[in-house]
Amino acid sequence: MQQAKTNKVIFPRLIFGYATIGLATVLAAWFSINRIENQVNAAPIVYEQALFNLRKIESLSNDAAEELFSYLLSGGEEELKEYRQIVETLPSNFNTFASSAMLSTPEEASQLAQFSAVKRSWGSFTSNAEVLIGEYQRKGEVSPANLIAVEKLLDDYQRLVNLLIEYEHAKAQDTQLQLKQIIGYSQLLLIIVAGVALAALTSVGVLMTRQVNGFVSRLQESHEDRSLAQVKSERLAAELTQFIDTANAPIFGIDADGLINEWNQTAAKITGFEKEDVLGQDLVQGFITEEYRESVKAVLDNALKGVESSNYEFPLYTKNGDRVEVLLNATTRLDVDRNIIGVIGVGQDITDAKVAQAALQQTQKMEVVGQLTGGLAHDFNNLLTVISGNLSFLKDELGVMSADVAEIIDDAQSAAKDGAELTHRLLAFARQQVLAPKETYVNDLIVDTNRLINRALGEGIKVTTELDSKNPLVMVDQGQLESALMNLCINARDAMQSGGPLTITSETKSLNKDQVEEVPDLAVGKYAVITVEDSGSGMSENEITKVFEPFYTTKEPGKGSGLGLSMVHGFVTQSNGAVVIESELGTGSKVKLYLPEVTDDKNTLIPPVKKILSESLPTGTEKILVVDDELRVRKTAVRILRKLGYEVIEASSGEDALDSIKENKNIELMFSDIMMPGGMSGRQLASIVSMEYPEIKIQLTTGFENVDITKNNADADFPLLKKPYDQRDLATTLRELLD
Questions:
Q1: Domains with residue ranges and CATH for the chain
Q2: pLDDT digits (tens, 9 = 90+) for 178-189
Q3: Which pTM value belongs to this model?
Q4: What three-state secondary structure class fits 253?
């Protein structure tokens, strides 16, 4: 009874409660359905907008890549401009996508991680692309390794973008499907509640329970999907870390305090410092050369403020104290909340390139100086020929003269000879002098020259020699080698103001492929090495790089021409050797001359026959054609030859000379300058005459002592008389050829 009474009380209450719950459920379901319907109608617009923004990013980045590679293929500045304009617009597109995709909400952490990976990947691509652009602008081409590296970064970026697009699309489809299912079930629930009323409350409860369970299950599935995405993101991050560590470019990172927190394998290989050696160390203070610390710190500080830098050159110290030149791109490093947490630096070792560059600049500079010197020597020798020839002619014409007049002419002739010697010295450093190489024993030359050296250096310098027992044999111009040795000893004397020891040594060395890298511009083979070592003041590294430049000197004004070492360098280089200087301030200097050693299988040159000339000049009556574009030089030669009894015809060019040969019979010798304007050189003229008129003997002359023109060897096609020449030189040379 009591139980029945209780049931009578409980059941109405339960019914009332269920009715209340049912009514509330109906009302709540009705309001919820309306709200969900509105969300469902709005959801496609939101998701489509996010996907549209993401695909726009994909399209822009593809366009940028196309413009970049088009520029690298064609060099067109318009493509480079388009590339950089697109790169500048991408940050705003990234922000637009982040807003439309609601990445700022906590539940989108996985999506944000993917998006951050995309941005970092794009940043790496553009940073390395700038390095590639810089290389193309400097060299006109890019290395395959650098191009492949940039293409790899682009592939990684595009793969990450595609993953994010797939993620966004899948999320949109899944969420929209869930909402539609909920609406469908809720509408069904509303119909059942309205139709069955209170009698179906239990069913409603069961149904609602099932729906809730289903919704919870779907939420769990969604959570599992997000967990899977998180795993993928972490895997991508690990792959990116591995890529950075194994990249073929040095990559380092610092935190906000400038302490190192990234150091890849290439950075370790270049510097010699392992990762564990540098982590936590101050990059600027510990590894940057002192003179660059302030500027490098400024670059890193700017990057920590969001101002990135590209193609900045700076040096790093290696573990063994060497200096490595690095080209740096500094990129700001952000966390997931876009807070600046440090800097990532991607570098390139350009040490060797800066050295292929300094050497090239030095070579080009010397070539320019050589061309200028050769041209000046040609003109100067022409002037000296006129002066010397006419002085000799004047002296002969005057015959008996006063002592004062004779002295004046002798002094003028002596000055002309000194001018010719100066021209020869100028051509020495330009490597354009005509050499007369012959087999020379190094030890014998040192011993013979040492007598002159001792007299020239004075009592304050003690000269000792240490000669190789082999007495190496070289093929050189003996006079030039003696002059070079004397120059080195005089320089050593000037460096030892208080006197001291000076040592001259000779030795032989065989250079293999590895050793020739230590001595630039030398081929593999055997060399005789002459070393002049002093105990003087020494030279700085900067001075050593300049000592071979013409007119450079460390001596006081008026105490050195600056041609000594330039001449030595020019002569030795022209002789297929090299000059090496080892010196430090306060420790003295060593100058080493490397000259190719003559081996047994080399043919030797026959020493020239010395001829003793009589005081009287040889004469003749033959018909001679004189060809020279310089009127005064031509007149001087014509005057000398006519005085000697020859019949002389003159021409001012190659074309005039050929016309003269056709018009005049019985020309027995042509005396022609080599360098002439008008398109036909003296050597070309000589070749034509020798083929068409083989009976005519040919004698060439030049004041431009370029070895490429004169050939400078024993089997030259035609004999050569160097300017300036005097009466005896011209008379003797032509008479020997005619006889």
A1: 2-245 (no CATH), 247-349 (3.30.450.20), 359-429 (1.10.287), 438-596 (3.30.565.10), 623-738 (3.40.50.2300)
A2: 656 655 655 565
A3: 0.46
A4: strand
